[in-house]
Structures are given as structure tokens and as C-alpha cells.
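Workshop exercise sheet. Pairs work together: one partner reads the sequence aloud, the other fills in the structure field after running the prediction. Swap roles for the next sheet.
Pair: D.N. / O.F.
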Amino acid sequence: MGNVIYFQKAKKKKEEKFNQSTKKTQTATEKATKEYPAVLNPLKDGSSWDARFDACTNFCEFFISGFDPAYSDYIKKNKNLEKEYQYKFGTMKPEKLEEELVDCLTKIVKISPEKREEDKTKILYQAARLFELEEILSDIFYKELMKE
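Structure field:
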């Protein structure tokens, strides 16, 4: 089991890591655009890399520009309801990660709109879980991209 990290502390850590990974992002973008025929060839038999690239990019954009700011506002209003979440940031097979993402997002959608304080706690917990899953997704995708 990992250490217990509160969302704001974990968010700060992620922001620091994000700032440090600018070079990785640039490398990944260059590789994905400059090496299109080798990496993202949609005509290649069985190639779904380009669709996965789009899906990952869309999800990360949604998380960073849409979900994270909304969640930050939400947690400020409901700080007293935050439940500890044990971040592990371990590795996960893509198939398992997909299942976990679907489960997490489904729970968030089912709980919303919150009718009880307990629902708000559940949303805070699932959002922290989503934070971890997005980080794992980014790591998996980057490693896969660098193998190409």
C-alpha cells in the first residue's frame, strides 16, 4: 500500500512533475507528428495506435482543462468532506486501466447531482481516484510511444 496523500498535496506534486516533464511532452509530440508513417500509420494492418492516441489526448485534455479546475473549486467548498485516498501510482495493464477509468467515471456520473453529504464525499474520493488513473494513463501512453 502507498502512503496517504491528500488531494491538494498530490496535486502540487503532480504539477511539479508536469513542469519537469515538458521535455518528455515535446519529444512525444515530435515523435507522433514527425514520424507519422512509422508510428501512426492508419493503413497499417491492425493499427489502432492513432485512435488510441486521439482518445488519450482527448481524455488528458478533458482532465486537465475541464475536470481538474472544476474539481479544485468543488474541493474548496467541501474540504471537510474529503476522505483519505491511498495513492499508489503503480503500473497497470491498459485493459485493466480502461476498466478502472470506466468504473470511476461511471460512479462520478451516477452520484451527480449530489443529494447528500455522503455523495459529495464519494465524488471527492472518485475524483482523487481519477487523478491517479490519469497519471497512470499518461505514463503508460508515454512509455508505449517511446517504444515505437
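Discussion prompt: The chain has one domain: 7-147. What would you look at next?
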